[in-house]
Amino acid sequence: MSMESDIAGPDRSNADWLRTVVDTAVDGVILIDARGSILMFNPACESLFGYPADEVIGRNVKVLMPPSYRDAHDGFLHNYHTTGDRKIIGIGREVVGQRKDGSTFLMHLSVGETQRAVGESIFVGIIHDLTERERVERELRESAARLRAVVDTAVDGVILIDSDGIILKLNPACERLFKYQADEVLGENVRMLMPEPYRSGHDGYIRNFLATGDKKIIGIGREVMGQRKDGSTFPMDLSVGEAKQDGSSIFVGMIHDLTERKRTEAQLMQAQKMEAVGQLSGGIAHDFNNLLTVIVGNAEHLSEQLASRGDLKRLADDICSAGERGAELTQRLLAFSRKQLLRPVETECNKLVDSMHKLLRRTLREDIEICTHFDPGLRHAFADPVQLESAILNLALNAQDAMASGGRLSISTANSSLDAGDHNAHPEVGPGEYVVIAVTDNGSGMPKRVLERAFEPFFTTKEVGKGSGLGLSMVYGFAKQSNGHVTIYSEPSLGTTVRIYLPSVMVKTQGAPLAVEREAVQSGSETVLVVEDDPFVRSYAVMSLESLGYQVISAVDGKEALQKLAAAPHVDLLFTDIVMPGGVNGWELAGLARKAKPDLRVLLTSGYALETLAANGHIRQGALILEKPYRKAELARLLREALATAAPV
Question: What's the domain range around 70?
Answer without folding.
Answer: 3-134
